[in-house]
C-alpha cells in the first residue's frame, strides 16, 4: 500500500533519472518500508476476525512417529478439544480422568489466586516486581502434567504453573518473590525468576530466549548419556526473534534432540504486537517447518488440548523420535508486568473479545458438563484456594518482605559466584565488612 | 620426556580427560571428523566416538548455549570457538548464562564448562583472526580466564580447567602453537621440540589455576606478561641487558596478586605487556593493582606496552604487534626514571 501523492512520486522518479545519468531507468515507484501494525489500537473496537479458529475436534491426531513433513498443516491450524458447549471432542480428547481434570482446575485456580495476592503484595510495596499469568494458566499447568519427574523445563518468567502443578511449595515461591530470609535464592534474583532443580525447573534468566538453546543442549546431554529424560524449552512470541531461538531449532533439528520446544504466543511482547516478531510468516509454529521439525499449534486456553499435544510431543521426544515445536495460541489478559500499562497500547476490552475464552472458565464448564462439578462447588473451591494461598502468604511474610523483616545476609551477596571464593572477592567482602 | 607442540599438548589434555571422565564432551566447528582447523581435536572423534566429539553448525551462540545446557545436566563440555574473534555471538551465553548459573540458582545449577579459543595475532590474520579479547572476560564475574604460554602449562592448565567446577575461558595464543615466538619476524622460530617447555609429561597432571610463575628472575624491574608476550619480554630483556624479572601470569582471573606483589616490592619497577589493545585492557587492572599494593616500593611509574587502539591491521601487523623493540624501549625508559 502506498499512500503517497502520485505526482510527488513521479517527480522523485524524474529526479532519480537525472542523477542516474546514463542508467536505464524503469518506471518503478520509489521503495517504501512496510512496518506492521496491530489491527486495533486504544479507542478502537477489538477485532479478532483475522484469527481463524477451527472447530474443536476438527484437527487430526497423527501417530507420534509420524514423519514431520506429513503434518505440515498442523503448523497452521489450531488443535482444540473443548467446544463451546464445554464438551471434549475429537481425536485429542479423552486422555484425562475426572480427578486429573479437577486437579488441573485446582492448579489453575491456585495460580490465579497466587497471582492476585502477589500483585497486591507488590502494590503494597512488599516486593519490587511481579508478573502475572492471567489467561495463560492452562499452558504451564497442563504441560507439567504431561512430563515425568526428572524431565527438565527451561522456562521463561511466565510458567509458574510448572511449579504449582508439580507440587512445589507456595511458601518458597513467595519467599523468593519477597527476597526474604527464607528465599531459596538468597535474594540474588529478581522476583519470579525461580530455580527448582528437583522440580524440573531450570533457573530463569530474565534474559530472553537464552534458555531455548540450553534446553536443546540439556536434551542432547541426556541422549549422549543414553538417559531417558527429556527437556522442554520455553519462549514467548516476541523473543522467537532472538538468535537463540534459531540456534535452538538448528541444533534440535541437526541432532534430533529429545526436546519439546514451546512457544507461548500471548499476542503481546510488552507493547509490541506479535506481528512484529512473526513478520510475514504464517504462524510461529511454521518456523519449525524449514528445519524439518514437527510443528503443531494448539489452543492455549484449552487445558485438555494443551495437555494432549504436550503429551504427544513428550512421548515423541522420549521415544527418541526427535524434537517438536508447539505454538500455544493464547492471550495475555493482564499487564506484561507490574511495570506495564496495557491501556496505553491496546483496547481495554480486547481481552474480553479474545475468541478462545478463559482457560479456568472453560475447564470449569467442561467439568460441570461432565456432571462432576457445579457453580457452587466452584465458588467453595475458590474460597478454599484463596485461603490456602493466604495461609502460605502469611507464613512467607513471617520470614520478611523486601523492605521489612528477615532478609538474606549481605555475606550471601559474595557467596556462590564461584564454587570457591577467589582471593579478590575475599578482599572485597572484607572491605564491605561482612 | 617426549616433546610436544602446544597443539599436541592441548589435544593430549582433552584426550586424557576424555579417557578419565566420560562426562567430558568436545565439540565445535570442524572439530569432529576433521579435528579442528588447528588440529587440536584430531583423532578424538575416532577414539571416543561421534557422541563425545562432534561437529556443530556454524553458530557460536548455539555451541556455547548448548554447552551450558549440557553442563547444567552434568556433563563437562570443552568446546572450541574457531577463533576468539568469532566469540561475540556467544557472548551473552557466556556472560549472562554460563557465568551466573551458580549464583542465580544458589548452586542448584552449575556450569563446569571450558570454552577454548585461539587468540592473538602474528599470523597475518587481519582484524577477524587476531584479536585478544581477554579483558572482555576478566571483567565478568563468575568466569575464570586462562592464557597458557607453552605446551607443558597448556596441558596442565587445560586439565585443571576441565576439572574446574566453574566456567573457564581458555585463550590459546595461536602464534605459540608451534614454537615460542618472540616477535622477531626476521629470525627462524625455535620449534617446541627444541625448547624445554615443550617437554610434556604423559598422562594426567594439573597446573593449578590462579598461580603465576617466574620465567626469568631479575632484580631491576618486573615485567608482567602472559601468552606470546612472555617470549617478547625475554628477548627484550636479553637485547637491552635490563635485568628484568618476567612473570608469566598464566591465569588472569583468579589473579596471583601475591606473586606480583612479591616481585614488584623487590624490583621497584613494573612494565606490563600485552598484545590486546591498550585502553581498558587487562593491563589497566594490573597497573591499578600494582600501584594500590606496591606504591611505596615503586621507583618509577608503572607503564604499559600493548597493541595500539586500532583494529588489528593486516599489512601493518608488525607495526601493531608489541614486539621486542617496543618492549625494550619501555624497559630502558623505566630504568631511566
Write a brief structural summary.
The complex is a heterodimer of chains A (434) and B (337). Chain A has 434 residues and is an alpha/beta fold.
- Reported CATH architecture of the largest domain in chain B: 3-Layer(aba) Sandwich
- Tell how many strands the DSSP assignment of chain B holds: 12
Number of helices of chain A: 14
Round the mean pLDDT of chain A to the nearest integer and report it: 94
Q: How would you classify the helix and strand content of chain B by structural class?
A: alpha/beta
How much is the radius of gyration of chain A in Å?
24 Å
The SS-based structural class of chain A is alpha/beta
Q: How helical, in percent, are the residues of chain B?
A: 25-40%
Q: State mean pLDDT of chain B (0 to 100 scale).
A: 97
Describe this structure in words.
The complex is a heterodimer of chains A (434) and B (337). Chain A is of the alpha/beta class. Chain A contains 14 helices and seven strands. Chain A has a single domain (68-406), classed as Rossmann fold. Chain A has helices spanning 6-20, 98-123, 137-145, 161-165, 170-178, 210-224, 243-255, 274-278, 303-318, 350-353, 359-369, 375-397, 410-414, 423-432, and strands spanning 152-154, 231-236, 259-265, 268-269, 272-273, 294-299, 324-329. Chain A is globular and about 70 Å long. Chain B has 337 residues and is an alpha/beta fold. Chain B has two domains: 6-198, Thiamin diphosphate (ThDP)-binding fold, Pyr/PP domains (Rossmann fold), CATH 3.40.50; 213-336, Rossmann fold (3-Layer(aba) Sandwich). In chain B, the strands form two sheets. In chain B, strands 2-1-3-4-6-5-10 form a seven-stranded mixed β-sheet, sandwiched between helices. The radius of gyration of chain B is 19 Å and the shape is globular.
Blueprint (SSEs and pairs):
The complex is a heterodimer of chains A (434) and B (337).
Chain A: H1 6-20, H2 98-123, H3 137-145, E1 152-154, H4 161-165, H5 170-178, H6 210-224, E2 231-236, H7 243-255, E3 259-265, E4 268-269, E5 272-273, H8 274-278, E6 294-299, H9 303-318, E7 324-329, H10 350-353, H11 359-369, H12 375-397, H13 410-414, H14 423-432
Parallel strand pairs in A: 1-2, 2-3, 3-7, 6-7
Antiparallel strand pairs in A: 4-5
Helix pairs in contact in A: 2-3, 2-11, 2-12, 3-9, 5-12, 6-7
Chain B: H1 6-20, E1 24-28, H2 44-48, E2 53-55, H3 60-73, E3 76-80, H4 91-98, H5 101-104, E4 114-119, H6 134-138, E5 144-146, H7 151-163, E6 168-173, E7 213-216, E8 221-225, H8 229-240, E9 244-248, E10 251-253, H9 257-267, E11 270-277, H10 282-294, E12 303-307, H11 317-320, H12 324-336
Parallel strand pairs in B: 1-2, 1-3, 3-4, 4-6, 5-6, 8-9, 8-11, 11-12
Antiparallel strand pairs in B: 5-10, 7-9
Helix pairs in contact in B: 1-7, 3-4, 8-12, 9-10
